[in-house]
Amino acid sequence: MKDENYTFQIGPIRPPNEGGERSLLLRTTRNCSWNRCVFCPFYDGKNFQIREVEEVKNDIDSIKKIKDILTDGSKEVNKVPYNCLSVVSGWMKSGERTVFLQDSNSLIMPTDELVEILEYLKSSFPSIERITSYARSDTIVRKKVSELKKIRDAGLTRLHVGLESGDDEVLKLVEKGVTAEQHIDGGKKAKEAGFELSEYVMPGLGGKRFSKDHALNTAKVLNQIDPDYIRVRPLYVYPGSDIYKMIEQGEFQVNSPHERLEEIKIIVDELDVDSKLCFDHSWNSWRNKEGALLFDMDYEGYRLPAEKSRILKLVEEGLEVDGSRHQGPLF
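^ that's the sequence the OP posted. Answer follows.
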């Protein structure tokens, strides 16, 4: 066999819980279909592409071959690129149960093509229990509910959506390309189709100017969607990103760690959902008086509304700590 039979494409990012659980990474699209958000530098200068079905199927075949040679202990393993070997071996050790479709918006694929890939993937690896993907709210809105259900029935069970903010002024400022109404419509549609839904919120995204409105309106949008998971991702300013340039030019004022905690306090206080609130990322780096991380970084998070008072108590503990003691990218 040729060396290329032991390779498959791997994109640059995936949710932390899809790495921590050793999900298989399968690239159905390349790069980002929007690629204008001012806070994200991952796909700068890269064109978006929907991969051909046969190309993705070939990757699935390569994964199967890598799995076979790992199972057999074949010397052919020396021909497998390290990144491909690492992903497959980690996935095998974890039980071969979960798969994450890359890159940023797999749902944008034509429905029949995505369904064909999902069916081929599940027939190739019958052990798979969960398949997940990033998706944009406006993409979900454009799909018919019947299409979404067809995709869900084919095996895509969880969608990760970057809500970021529920405030239209903030969404416009950061060039998210969707409105609060589209976020609500997309979230409701995903739930109606039977998807498990993770919505990501970004404390700090409104800066000092929009901080309170950002928090209040984000909670309002989440209340209307009632997602399965709400995942907190504080704003991280990458050097060279568009928002970094906005800061340099005085167009955006970064708020403090305490101000971001205040945003979380407002959001949690206003939430009326049956969701799990998760701080499952190292950027949630606030500390308590003992210097330990303020929030648990468990992938399943805190259950709302049952643990609302517990979360608010933790926020108050964080606000009592000198802001300079908070570590990580919150500065």
